[in-house]
Amino acid sequence: MTTAARSGTPASPPKRSRIGDLRMRDVYRGLAVLAAAAVVAAGLVFVLPSSPDEVAAGPITAPPAQPSSSGATPPPQQTPTPSVLGTTAAPEVTAPSAVASTTLTPSPLAATGRPIPTPGTTLAPGYTAMEALYADARVPRLPAKARRVPLKAAAGRTVKDRRSGVVVPRLAKPWKTYGPAPFTSRQVLPQVRGARVRGMFVTCPLPIEEQKAPRDSALLAARWTLNHHPKGAAITWLASQPVRKGWMLMYRVTYGKHSSRAAVVVLDGGMPKPALAFVSVPDTQRKRWADVTRVISGVRVLG
């Protein structure tokens, strides 16, 4: 037995190095923490740009142009530049090229300085009725020197539309009066077998927003009448001229392989809203196309 054992004093443990004092699982845990920190640092290097100029931009779009309440003309939008992803914003809406006044009627928007929409343009919120008209691909610009139609005072029986404040011709057979709703007076031709539409002559207070110029109100009314023609209908202008206290437009409406001859007369009948007279006769009843001229010749103010 050793001297320590004989004396009863416990022996001191042998000295170890500091690395040897660590357990292996603690070593592995520390290495794992260091590895995770290295991954996070590497991720920051790839995600964050080295300078603000390197931030990838998305598609550039201009804010919708809202009409100013003060009537001031908004500044023109700049053409958007391509993004770094190769995507461009929607193209800017630009005014059509200038046309001589002998070809097209000047737009009322020209005096305001606002761009005139081109046919097929998608309009921003807040657009006006006339802007919607110019953007409608179904309605071409009205020529300034459109053909005029000789108008002769119509004789014979008449129909009085007191709600609209007008008197209109009562057309001879085969025309006949029909239930007016939703209009205030209506005359129709007999339905042709297999035909999609038939001749119709109606009056009512102007169903769209009245404009300062009667001609512009008539343009909007003609566009509105497309709701009463087959889908896909489009207008071709035939005549345009002033009438007493209003304006008249005659036009052809084409839909597929067929067409109709139509006309609108908008005039002030002394009521809260101007009166509208609208006539349309399809090519399946072309023998009655002369009635279109009779209608526009015979519409007058009541009283």
From TrEMBL:
Transmembrane segments: 27-48
Name this polypeptide is given: Fibronectin attachment protein
Keywords: Membrane, Transmembrane, Transmembrane helix
Taxonomic lineage: Bacteria, Bacillati, Actinomycetota, Actinomycetes, Streptosporangiales
Region (Disordered): 57-122
Superkingdom, natural source: Bacteria
